[in-house]
Design brief:
The complex is a heterodimer of chains A (116) and B (115). Chain A is mainly beta. Helix content of chain A is 0%, strand content 53%. Chain A is built from no helices and eleven strands. Chain B has 115 residues and is mainly beta. In chain B, the strands form three sheets. In chain B, strands 2, 5, 6, 10, 11 and 12 form a six-stranded mixed sheet that branches. Chain B has a four-stranded antiparallel sheet with strand order 3-9-8-7, with no helix packed on it. In chain B, strand 10 and strand 11 form a beta hairpin. Classes of the chains: A mainly beta (116), B mainly beta (115). At the A-B interface, strand 5, strand 9 and strand 10 of A face strand 11 of B.
């Protein structure tokens, strides 16, 4: 079964509203989670690294004020797309790794965001 | 900086054919991990394999096999006797030890298996 749960699977929102996406590790504690973005028929691009109890680390070119990341517990990270615009429409996918250096990386099922 | 190249954008084969997906990577680090993921139309990423840079042994798992060659910086993936259910986008990825599993993905290869 899935070890990383992402919710919602898809969401449609109006331009200007904010959308929150949750990523949960189900049977392990994840000190670090990663948020990726995938445009249609393109590769996954890392947006940010979410660290439990501290600020996220954003990749170059990613607006941290627009993509708010909160990692309040060892099993939950959230990505909030603030004041969404149609160009934010994309597939967002999170990943998490267990606590051991050799732990495999697990991905959530992704969230398809459509901004109208 | 790391880079992963999947030169094949799209491959189409007939069921039962063998198919090899190419992956070439670039990194200056001597310690790294290589991955293959499958992304079916539903969108989720399915983990297929992780290989440590110090382990050049080829691996076989059922109809899947992987050929890791450090000399050519390649980590190719072969599906034997392909099936329609193998149709998906396949991503090769690389991470550096010590970067908490931050992955650099290739652009993916879309595999279409037809009857």
């Amino acid at each position: 079964g899935a070890v990383v749960s992402q919710h919602p699977s898809w969401v449609i929102c109006k331009s200007g509203t904010s959308v929150k996406i949750e990523c949960r590790s189900l049977d392990f504690q994840a000190t670090t989670m990663f948020w990726y973005r995938q445009f249609p028929k393109q590769s996954l691009m890392l947006m940010a690294t979410s660290n439990e109890g501290s600020k996220a680390t954003y990749e170059q070119g990613v607006e941290k004020d627009k993509f708010l990341i909160n990692h309040a517990s060892l099993t939950l990270s959230t990505l909030t797309v603030t004041s969404a615009h149609p160009e934010d429409s994309s597939f967002y996918i999170c990943s998490a790794r267990g606590g051991f250096p050799d732990s495999p990386l697990h991905f959530g099922n992704g969230t398809r965001l459509t901004v109208t | 900086a790391q880079k992963v190249t999947q030169a094949q954008t799209e491959i189409s084969v007939v069921e039962k054919e063998d198919v090899t997906l190419d992956c070439v990577y670039e990194t200056r680090d001597t310690t790294y991990y290589l991955f293959w993921y499958k992304q079916p139309p539903s969108g989720e990423l399915v983990f297929l394999i992780r290989r440590n840079s110090f382990d050049e042994q080829n691996e076989i798992s059922g109809r899947y096999s992987w050929n890791f060659q450090k000399s050519t910086s390649s980590f190719n993936f072969t599906i034997t006797a392909s099936q329609v259910v193998d149709s998906a986008v396949y991503f090769c990825a690389l991470s550096l030890t010590g970067t908490a599993s931050k992955l650099t993905f290739g652009t993916g290869t879309r595999l279409q298996v037809t009857l």
